[in-house]
Structure formats: C-alpha cells, structure tokens
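Re: Re: token formats

Sure, here are both.
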Amino acid sequence: MGELKAIWLKRAKQGPMDAVSEASLRAGRGLVGNANQGGKRQVTLINEAVWADVTARLGVDLDPSRRRANLLVSGDIDLANSRHKVLRIGPVRVRIYGETRPCEQMEAAAPGLQEMLRDDWGGGAFGEVLDDGQIALGDVVAWEAD
C-alpha cells in the first residue's frame, strides 16, 4: 500500500502544473480541469522513491512537479511493468495502460534527466480513470487483486 502525496493539474499542453490538495475524476475522461481528457492517457503517475533516486543519482534537487505527472504516490506502489493492473486511489480506480516516456522537457529541467527516467518505467505510468470520484492528499493507494 501507499499514499497519495501530491496532485497536479495541467492547465494547457506544456502549461504550468498547479498543485492542488484534492481533485475530481471522471470515468473515461480524467482529472476535471486537466488539459488531457479522454483516451488512454487520462492520468499520469510517478513514484516518490523512484523520483528521489533518479534525482539523487543525477546530483540535482528537483521538485517532483518538474516530472509533469498528475499524481505522486509513495509506499509499496511499484509502477514498473504494471500495464493492465488496476490501482485504487482513495475511492477511484485507474487502469494502467503503459509507461510514461520522458520527453525533452525533462532534459530542460536537468541535463541527463530524460535519459535517467527511461530506465525501468522511471518516468512513471499512465492510465484510464474507471470511476467518478474525489481524491485528496493522504488517500490510500493500493493495487487491486487480479
């Protein structure tokens, strides 16, 4: 199990990431107020420990919001190879569809970051929202049984 540590909404493509303490999700759409809606990439997630490890190995101190993901999770939530698994975040379920590949914005944040995030799902995962609901910082995050 883990915990929801941060929530960010992206106002527009390549726009700023706004930290919020809670958010509404809509099944089949994503985070209300987020630029990305619909498709399989409705929400993006990163793991706090993986981010800390990557930035430490690079010797940089970067806020995890620089990854530009929507959700930061902590604890025993290994996103690597999680394709098709279902993750429960508070009352909402998200089906993981794939690995979030790091883009050139990561290189702009810190030289070498894009390459470091390419290893073993270091850039996190993306998925589809399965339920309408409200999530908030501190919510329990856990994998659903297969």
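Second one below.
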Amino acid sequence: MYLSQHGVVLEDDFKKYSQNFPIIKTPKIPTERLIELNKRAYKEFYYRPKYVLKQIKSIRNPTYLLKGFKVIKNWIKS
C-alpha cells in the first residue's frame, strides 16, 4: 500500500505482473530502460554456450530438440 499511495507502482492489477515488466517506477531509470536491461540480462544468462550445451544434452526426445531450436531462433529475432 505504501508504494501505491506515493505513485511508485506502475500496475495495480496483480494479474498483469510478470518477470518481464517492471512494476515499480524509479526516478533515475526509465521503465523502457529497465525492460531493455531485463532482456539483456536474460540473453546473457541463457545464451551462455555452456548453459545452452547443457540444455541440449538434457533433451532426450528429438522433437523437443527441434522445438527448442525454433524457440531460440525466434527469441534471437526479437
């Protein structure tokens, strides 16, 4: 309640909360920049070669492997 009383909360509807969108605005960093930094952090973590290879090795079904590559391809485009 304290944050919403001071106009810091961007969204009051909890159904719209997600890990990809900031819910609190900051005076020093614009919301668009926070979203950009969040995307960058995800890419830097999940596109590490060691992590990608570990995930590929854990796939036992070739169909899932193909779907995984399609997901990565689409994510790179965005």
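Residues 2-77 form one domain. The helical segments are 2-5, 31-46, 49-58, 62-77.
- S.
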